[in-house]
Amino acid sequence: MPDTFIKIASVTVGAGGAATMAFSSIPATYTDLVLMTSNRLTGSNPTVNLQFNSDTTQTNYYRRILLHYGSGASVNYTNDQGGGGYATYSGYTASTFSNTSIYIPNYLSANQKTYSADSVAENNSASDYFSGIFAGLWTGTAAITGITIYPADSTNWVQYTTATLYGIKNS
What is the mean pLDDT of residues 122-132? Predict the structure, then answer.
């Protein structure tokens, strides 16, 4: 049975925005990691990219998404870094932020790393929003010591966007 979440670090975007939110030197004292975000970006693409250990090779990442959006649903499988959830973007209701939770089990393992995420980018509209459940894989076999999330369309996070990284220890 795991213990409660133990806060490792938190990032809050200040005035002027930021291109990334990153965590480095993640300690090797936990069994699993959880990254929780409340975010909004300046662009028009709601996709959030996820990167481990500064690995920028797109083909090292896989994701499967069950996506629901205003007028429909879809399932897709993609080979890229877009498994970091969704973010509310510039065309959505002002001052509205999205929420994402990313669970990374066995982050110290010498095997490829899996993760799962659930995410919603809301708008004040019954027909315009994104919600998704993600299953992802990073093919790296090194322990995860760094995590970076950033908007897929190379725009910025807005002020007050936050990300908090938690560690979980098994009892």
Answer: 76
